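Minutes, project huddle
Topic: does the predicted pose make sense with FE2/S2 (inorganic) cluster bound?
PN asked that the exact inputs be recorded in the minutes so nobody has to dig through chat later. Recorded below.
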Amino acid sequence: MILGPLHEIADPGGKGYTLPDRRQVFVIRRGDVVYGYFNACPHQGVPLDWKPDVFLSVDKSVIQCATHFARFRIEDGHCLAGPCVGRALIPLPVAVEDGHVVARPAPDAG
Ligand code: FES
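Predicted holo structure (tokens), as shared on screen:
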């Protein structure tokens, strides 16, 4: 399914989306490469962004939870530091097709 146009995501940056079943997901962009995850921190299950579409640390090097500041590797969602170190975000397979970010296959995790 199409999540939205790639150009709507800051580079580098992130953007949140709501799936048809209402689950929250987000996509991180680096150039033409995208990484997708469900928007739930492994620590307490809350959304990672305290402001819409703000998922990265100030230096944009890692994904950062706004609640207790867990830090996650962009490439695989592995928690590098914080209260859930060693755990990981649930991945959402995404790709860029014809200038749009698409999620595939239909996600059933989370
Ligand atoms: S809820 Fe994310 S670090 Fe605590």
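Observations noted during the meeting:
- The chain has one domain: 2-103.
- The chain has no helices and nine strands.
No decisions taken; revisit at the next huddle.
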